[in-house]
Amino acid sequence: MRDADCTSFLQWALPRLGLRWPGFRRVRGQVCKRLGRRLTALGLKGLSEYRALLEADTGEWGLLDGLCRISVSRFYRNREVWRCLEGKLLPRLGAQASTRGETRLRIWSAGCASGEEPYTLALVFALGKAPTACEPKIVATDADPHLLGRARRACYRPASLRELPTAWNAAFEQSGDELCLRPAYRAPVRFLEQDIRRDHPNRRFDLILCRNLVFTYFEVSLQAAIARRLAETLVPGGLLLLGSHECLPRPVAGLVQERPWLCRRDPG
Q1: What are phi and psi of 191, to 5 degrees?
Q2: 175-211 pLDDT, tens per residue?
Q3: What is the CATH number of the domain that holds 250?
Q4: How far apart are CA 35 and CA 58, in angstroms?
């Protein structure tokens, strides 16, 4: 499959899935390889035949949607963000929760893939520099059941841990070629299969991490709609974290932008 043919196909197909081509420029190779395997499995000669299949069989769109999911993840990804969380943001949220008479911080990791992000949160609370006296209650969601299965198993290649503080490696135990997170550190995290385009946990949160998904890969009008829902899901004073290279597509009522990647729910 030629790169130009795949690019042309993606520019046609992605908007029909609520996705946008600019977000896929740098990762198109990964999607194109998956498309190639799908064509082989279907016995199709090229993308023109696959496009004809999509136009005739609406069920194939769901499979294509799965091929377009990008799941690059690792523990402690973007360490500056995690240091800011541990040193400043979690203590602030803990103080706000204590003022409300609460002892837990409710956190949502949206688009959690194979679990590295929510488990990093659990490790920050367990092994970090005492960011708050509140206990974490972490909900992690993703649309891909295969990735969620890997998350629940909680076993990873060593390369996935390379950015973690070295002392935190003791939270893992060796299992063959993998490192598995010990059960005590998995306890605060609960996984749910949900597609953020259509659903979200039915509760309010002190902190939402929505990084390297919605505001990179989704079409701009869908980004705006999801941002409004995220704002409504935060408690007053709650925080929304985006990816370090992301920002909201436009201002959102109720959200105050503190940094390009950090927004606060207006208490008013």
Answers
A1: -105, 140
A2: 999 999 999 999 999 999 999 999 989 899 999 999 9
A3: 3.40.50.150
A4: 17
